[in-house]
Amino acid sequence: MEPLTSFILEKVRTLVNWTKANKLNAVIVGILALFFLQYLSLPNNSLQSLRKNNPKKTALMEQRIEEAASSEKEFSIQQQWTPISRISKNLINAVIVSEDGMFYEHEGVDWYELEESIKKNLAKGKAARGGSTISQQLSKNLYLSTSKDPVRKLKELIITLRMERTLSKRRILEIYLNVIEWGNGVFGVEAAAKKYFGKSASQLSREEAAQMAAVIPSPRKYQPNVMTRYVARRSSIILNRMSARGM
User: Which of 28, 36, 67, 155 is the most buried (most CB within 10 A)?
Assistant: First the structure.
């Protein structure tokens, strides 16, 4: 064992000395190693299955269940899957102009928005602006947590890029609309439309759709059928964007 121990110690010393002498290269190697390890842990098979199979409980749903259990609060999930062909075009348009205007043009990441988000957040010293696309939001909801730590963001980025190569834009949008949070325990457009407006997602008007899209950033703080100043202002902006695009 002694020769082996000496060999290992010698290699460790060599690595430490190289790291000290090549700090920048060591950082790059460390980042690449982290990237590779995260890549190995990604849900590649699950992404393939999403082409034909609808997801069951998402990571966000599991997180909300655990949060409710830890606080001993009653919690139940309201969700009813509906194909995108039965979702109001008004809502589809409202969500796109609200959350990701370049959805059909980018390949998962809007690099311009991401750059602007980083600049603004650095200037403010906090997360003041989000730059996540619909695909990034879906990656987070399906597989990750709401944490803002860099490793989680790295995973989100990798999953998003793979998702865009695996699924069609239509399928990504369909899954997104069926799993995103729209209130305490409310997930997906059908359950939300029935809860807040007493109708199916296929029957939502332009105004109702805009109000639904308006609360996506803060679904547990605002309700689309309660016209607070925030909902009124944001839904008005969404309607103006839709009109400008001829929607």
Answer: 155
**Checking phi first, is residue 183 left (phi over 0); if not, alpha (psi -120 to 50) or beta?**
left
Q: Above 50 in pLDDT, residue 111?
A: yes
The three-point CA angle 216-219-223 to 5° equals 105
pLDDT band at 148; cut points 50, 70, 90 = confident
CA angle 111, 62, 141 (to 5 degrees): 15
Where are the chain's structural domains? 1-41
CB-based contact 182:74 (threshold 8 Å): no
> Which tokens in the block code for residue 136?
């990034």
pLDDT at 1 (0 to 100): 46
Question: What is the DSSP secondary structure assignment for residue 31, as one 8-state letter?
Answer: H
How far is it, in rounded angstroms, from Cα 158 to Cα 160? 5
Neighbours of 114 (CB within 10 A): 16
Encoding tokens for residue 86? Answer: 């039965």
Query: How long is the chain?
Result: 247
Average predicted confidence (pLDDT) for the chain = 84
